[in-house]
From TrEMBL:
Name of the protein in question: At1g61320/AtMIF1 LRR domain-containing protein
Top-rank lineage group of the source organism: Eukaryota
Domain At1g61320/AtMIF1 LRR: 128-364
InterPro entries, A to Z: At1g61320/At1g61330-like, F-box-like_dom_sf, LRR_At1g61320_AtMIF1, LRR_dom_sf
Length: 379
């Protein structure tokens, strides 16, 4: 009986012992923290002899004693807001912030409120960029789409001077509609920038490249939306961008004729949205596999379509043409998306078929027409 009581007392004392050990550990942590803070402030004995080196070691103990390359890599993986906060809290991260690879400015990363003033937005971006050297920058994105009517063009040149350094890979400049359109400074595209830039996305700017400035040797993706650029200027840009893989044009009102040279061996995707003055598309790109066209009906009979596997068409009265012409002109088609309105022509029964078609999407006002076409394509 006595042994049973003794064992019970031991079991009951275990939680108290664990709690006591936790208190002792916390007390030691508090004492060490107070001691380290006192050393950071510096005592008289630390100012003599080797005390300076001991104080330096104490200062560096605020972050792990890791190689600079690892700290820079850790900092580069952080989202921009978190990386900026870390730079404010640590000198080591403040040093790496000057080479942070991604600067993405929008209302979320800057923290602009719905009723916030545009000037505050400009001041925040200016302060951030002034602390960045531009060296090591891979991605620069500026989204002003939610600040309609606000003109910040006087800031853009100075910001792009910092961002457009050799090594930049992605550049996005999305500006709102204003009375005075911003003229993109092609003069900032130095040799180093033209060699490293891979992704370029511009909205509501004027782009006037010249023969001397336009060769973008590393460019793989080009997206132009509401960009004022003539066909001659675009042709100059395309002919000197031999690595181009994706081309997207949207609402580019000054382009009437689009000619893609055979030198674009890597071009695989072409998208043209609402370029209402565009009349003819000619393409000799041998590896074009994805084609997306919207707006009014275009003449693309001069397009090399044998390699096209994905086609998306957004035109009225196109269903009949799709059934009658596409199987012979695009025999390797695998994905077909058609948006058609006011369809009045019933698709005829023809001997040609889509032999490799796997995915079919049709949207039109008449559901009966959709069902009939679907059955006829697959039979």
């Amino acid at each position: 009986m006595g042994m049973l009581v003794l064992n019970l007392n031991r079991l009951m004392s275990l939680p108290r012992d664990r709690q006591r050990r936790r208190w002792q550990i916390r007390a030691r942590c508090r004492r060490s923290l107070v001691t380290s803070r006192g050393k950071r402030k510096g005592s008289p004995c630390q100012q003599d002899g080797d005390g300076i080196s001991r104080a330096g070691k104490t200062m560096r103990s605020s972050i792990p004693d890791l190689p600079e390359e690892i700290l820079f890599h850790i900092h580069s993986l952080m989202p921009m807001r978190e990386a900026a906060r870390a730079a404010c809290a640590s000198r080591a991260f403040l040093h790496s912030w000057r080479c942070h690879p991604n600067l993405i400015f929008n209302k979320d990363t800057i923290g602009l409120k719905i009723n916030g003033r545009g000037e505050n937005f400009h001041h925040k971006i200016g302060r951030i960029l002034r602390k960045h050297s531009g060296i090591g920058l891979k991605t620069f994105s500026l989204d002003y789409s939610y600040m309609c009517g606000f003109d910040g063009a006087r800031y853009f040149d100075s910001w792009l001077q910092i961002a457009l350094k050799p090594g930049i890979e992605k550049l996005t400049l999305w500006l709102p509609t204003t009375k005075k359109i911003y003229n993109f400074p092609c003069s900032l595209l130095s040799d180093g920038v033209r060699n490293s830039l891979q992704y370029l996305k511009l909205h509501n700017v004027a782009l006037h490249p010249t023969v001397e400035l336009c060769p973008l040797r590393g460019l793989t993706s080009l997206h132009l939306s509401d960009v004022r650029i003539t066909w001659d200027e675009l042709e100059c840009l395309l002919c000197n961008s031999l690595a181009l893989e994706q081309l997207e044009l949207e609402c580019c009102a000054e382009i009437i004729y689009l000619k893609i040279p055979c030198s674009l061996q890597r071009l695989s995707s072409l998208s043209v949205f609402s370029c209402y003055r565009l009349q003819v598309i000619e393409s000799k790109a041998p590896n074009l596999s994805s084609l997306c066209l919207t707006g009014h009906r275009l003449n693309f009979s001069h397009v090399e379509t044998l390699q096209v596997k994905k086609l998306a068409m957004y035109y009225p009265n196109f269903i009949g043409d799709a059934r009658g012409k596409l199987p012979s002109s695009m025999p390797n088609l695998e994905t077909l998306v058609i948006n058609s309105q006011s369809e009045v022509v019933d698709a005829p029964m023809l001997p040609t078929k889509f032999l490799y078609l796997k995915h079919l999407t049709i949207r039109c006002l008449s559901h009966i027409c959709c069902i009939n076409l679907f059955l006829r394509i697959h039979n």
